Amino acid sequence: MEKNKTKIEILDWDLVATWSFDLKVETCTICRNHIMDLCIECQNDEKNGRCNVAWGKCGHAFHKHCIDRWLNTKNVCPLDTQVWQEEESALNDKGEIQ
């Protein structure tokens, strides 16, 4: 009997990974949709398959369209009323890492 003879052979190996943002609140509190889902504006735009997320320096995140609309009337974070300062994104408009 040969000790080094392989008994099984791996023919294919498919890895699957999932990810999510590290958030305290996983819902855009402006539109009430999950932050990983499309905002209301993006749901109405059939061509747009993704929705950007805007992070504040306060640590809160909102859909980009939602917070932009909010900032037209108020310049504070909807959750903690600190002056809104957006973190610089590591992603470009296409969602690719810069």
Automatic annotation (TrEMBL):
Pathway: Protein modification; protein ubiquitination
UniProt superkingdom: Eukaryota
Pfam families given in the database record: zf-rbx1
Keyword Magnesium part of the UniProt annotation: no
Keywords, comma-separated and alphabetical: Cytoplasm, Metal-binding, Nucleus, Ubl conjugation pathway, Zinc, Zinc-finger
Biological-process GO terms, alphabetical: G1/S transition of mitotic cell cycle; positive regulation of D-glucose transmembrane transport; SCF-dependent proteasomal ubiquitin-dependent protein catabolic process; silent mating-type cassette heterochromatin formation
Location(s) in or outside the cell: Cytoplasm; Nucleus
Main location: cytoplasm
Keyword Thylakoid attached: no
Cellular component, GO, one term: nucleus
Residue span, RING-type domain: 39-81
Alphabetical list of InterPro entries matching this protein: RING-box_E3_Ubiquitin_Ligase (IPR051031), Znf_RING (IPR001841), Znf_RING/FYVE/PHD (IPR013083), Znf_RING_H2 (IPR024766)
Molecular-function annotations in GO: protein-macromolecule adaptor activity; ubiquitin-protein transferase activity; zinc ion binding
Similarity section: Belongs to the RING-box family.
Record-linked PANTHER family: RING BOX
Protein name in the entry: Pip1
Species, as recorded: Ecytonucleospora hepatopenaei
Classification of source organism: Eukaryota, Fungi, Fungi incertae sedis, Microsporidia, Enterocytozoonidae
